[in-house]
Amino acid sequence: DAMVIQNPRYQVxxxxxxxxxSCSQTLNHNVMYWYQQKSxxxxxxxxxxxxxxxxxxxxxPDNFQSRRPNTSFCFLDIRSPGLGDAAMYLxxxxxxxxxxxxxxxxxxxxxxxx
Amino acid sequence: xxxxxxxxxPFNVPxxxxxxxxxxxxxxxxxSFFWYRQDCRKEPKLLMSVYSSxxxxxxxTAQLNRASQYISLLIRDSKLSDSATYLCVVxxxxxxxxxxxxxxxxTLQVKP
Lengths: 114, 112
What we know:
The complex is a heterodimer of chains A (114) and B (112).
Chain A: E1 4-7, E2 10-13, E3 19-25, E4 31-37, E5 44-50, E6 53-56, E7 64-67, E8 73-78, E9 87-94, E10 103-105, E11 109-113
Parallel strand pairs in A: 2-11
Antiparallel strand pairs in A: 1-3, 3-8, 4-5, 4-9, 5-6, 7-8, 9-10, 9-11
Chain B: E1 4-6, E2 11-14, E3 19-25, E4 32-38, E5 44-50, E6 55-57, E7 60-65, E8 70-75, E9 84-91, E10 100-102, E11 106-111
Parallel strand pairs in B: 2-11
Antiparallel strand pairs in B: 1-3, 3-8, 4-5, 4-9, 6-7, 7-8, 9-10, 9-11
């Protein structure tokens, strides 16, 4: 009954080798977010989609890209992963028109860069 | 100054204790407020929303003071299973509804 699904749960890549992380949702929420969370730090928003509108955070490196081919799916592409990109990547969804505007998180993908 | 500030702790308390976490936010235009719980190496999960009138869910009570831009979470009768990091979260802190700003979290360790 998972509502926000992330694949894979664990990803190992080599320095500089492109990697794609996947997120899907069954909630039909129109907003999807990608966060990066490093150890002992708060989740940091990278970007989000409001429907098809892409909103990049000002301090998100160009190395991070995203695609949202339809309502249900959203991808995070890391073009040339560096050692500093090792982190947990969290996908979240929300439906801002709702009263509580809550965000629902997926289980995350833990990325290791060798 | 961080937009959302929390004491990182850790708070080490015995089972059955009452513990309170505090959080301050910088933008008076912030619109909604939450406490999330995050277990080690897991995703954040919504614990409760926070309303001006205060709200209670079992052993958990959340309070919001808009005048002081202050949010609190009270946990009564702590259980071992309450051990986690508690994230204070503010929505719309930058005037952009839907963008969550997370505090760095407060770590709670409940000991037998």
